[in-house]
Write a structure and sequence with these properties.
Low-confidence stretches: none
Oligomer: single chain
Shape: elongated
CATH class of the domain at 136-206: Alpha Beta
Distance between the termini: 78 Å
Largest sheet: 3 strands, antiparallel
Order of helices and strands: EEEEEEEHHEHHEEEE
Number of strands: 12
Helix content: 10-25%
Length: about 210
């Protein structure tokens, strides 16, 4: 039969495989350019179909320079990291461990209870102003159907879902139609979450305690 593998006539350095699927029964794909090696010895296994029926990139750390991804990454499932995640600032190029950033945030949050009420209000006002810039609002901690649909008595603490621009889907927890109960027992996304206008908020009602 006619072959679908041919040498590229352009510069003689390419092999072109034409087809829909490329399949090999080999377990290892090795990419090894001698001129680019920093070490003379060792394998250079780029992709390996490993013993756990998984796909391993840079098997056993064969490539000392590591793996570089030159575009966005989408992860469809869980992400497990055995080492550190380093965060590089786009503003000044400073590189920090993600754990250090999280620890700093945790420390700052822990100090909030030492701040005056005025300072906390300033922080909240800053967050609210930022949310308005991106046409967003925080989900309130509604406790009743009345607050969801009309806000609190003065509309100062909790605005209604309609005023905030949220669509609301009602649910019940006890197996009865949600219109029977008025007490809110669950909200998703959780109160305090900033959402764009037009976002959907799930509200669960349950029997009065």
């Amino acid at each position: 039969m006619p072959t679908d593998i041919k040498l590229d006539a352009g510069d003689g350095n390419h092999v072109v495989i034409e087809g829909t699927v490329v399949r090999t029964t080999a377990s290892d794909l090795i990419l090894d350019a001698p001129a680019r090696r920093s070490k003379k010895r060792g394998f250079r296994r780029a992709l390996v179909h490993d013993r756990y029926d998984g796909l391993t990139i840079n098997f056993n750390g064969d490539y000392p320079g590591g793996v570089t991804v030159g575009s966005n990454i989408t992860v469809a499932r869980d992400l497990t990291v055995a080492g550190e995640i380093r965060w590089k600032s786009a503003r000044n190029g400073e590189e920090r461990k993600l754990t250090e950033v999280i620890d700093r945030i945790d420390y700052d949050i822990g100090r909030l209870n030492l701040y005056s009420e005025g300072a906390i209000n300033e922080i909240w006002n800053a967050l609210t102003s930022l949310a308005k810039l991106i046409d967003a609002a925080a989900v309130p901690p509604w406790s009743t159907r009345e607050e969801v649909e009309r806000g609190d008595d003065m509309g100062i603490l909790y605005s209604s879902a309609e005023d905030l621009g949220f669509d609301v889907v009602y649910h019940d927890i006890d197996g009865y139609p949600p219109q029977i109960y008025d007490r809110v027992c669950k909200i998703e996304p959780s109160p305090g979450t900033f959402l764009r206008k037009g976002s959907t908020v799930q509200v669960w009602f349950c029997e009065e305690e």
